[in-house]
Amino acid sequence: MTPTLPRTVRAVDTPLLLDLAQEAALHGFSQRLPVDWLREHLAAEATHYLFPTLVQRLTHRPETPLQWRCQQLLTVSTGEQIWGLLDVLPDTFDEIPETLDTTSKKDIVSRIERAVKVREWMERMAADAGS
After folding, report:
1. Which pLDDT does position 1 carry in this prediction?
2. Residue (of 21, 76, 86, 75) closest to 50 by Cα position
3. 60, exposed or middle or buried, with CB in 10 Å at 0-12, 13-18, 19+?
4. Burial bucket for residue 1 (CB in 10 Å: 0-12, 13-18, 19+)
5. pLDDT digits (tens, 9 = 90+) for 84-111
6. For residues 20 and 1, what is the distance between their CA atoms, to the nearest angstrom?
7. What b-and-e string marks burial along 82-91, b requiring 16 or more CB atoms within 10 Å of the CB?
8. Which residue, 4, 3, 5, 6, is CA-closest to 105?
9. Do 85 and 54 touch, CB atoms closer than 8 A?
10. pLDDT by residue for the chain (131 residues), tens digit each?
11. Burial level of 56, CB count in 10 A (0-12/13-18/19+)?
12. Mapping DSSP to helix (H, G, I), strand (E, B) and coil, where does residue 33 land?
């Protein structure tokens, strides 16, 4: 039986987000940013947000555990918030403390929906660097 996807948003600091990305890399999850990229571009003291949106089961890789595909709102070193994806183990997600009220969660989901995607931000940063 597939576990029920939680309808919540969790706040994580940069060190925890790096740990989650490392765990995703160890499991070979498909939706994750490289830990080195995150370390280079995330604002060190920022809070980031995870919003589970999909139960991900890799039927072609049965050895891979089920995961929650989370939309993430990342705060990068420029101060902007950008949108990415991160696959997280359900038990790992459940261990992240619930710290946000309903109004904050709604605001974060709204910001996720409007945020620039990681790829678009990277392209803009590369173009700005070349100018």
Report:
1. 61
2. 86
3. exposed
4. exposed
5. 999 999 999 999 999 999 999 999 999 9
6. 25
7. bbbbbbbbbe
8. 6
9. no
10. 667 899 999 999 999 999 999 999 998 888 889 999 999 999 999 999 999 999 877 666 677 778 999 999 999 999 999 999 999 999 999 999 999 999 999 999 999 999 999 999 999 988 888 76
11. buried
12. coil
**Size of the chain, expressed as the number of residues it contains:** 131
Tokens of 23: 């765990």
- Residue 66 tokens, joined: 């089920």
Rounded CA separation 119/55 (Å)? 23
What are 65's two structure tokens? 């555990």
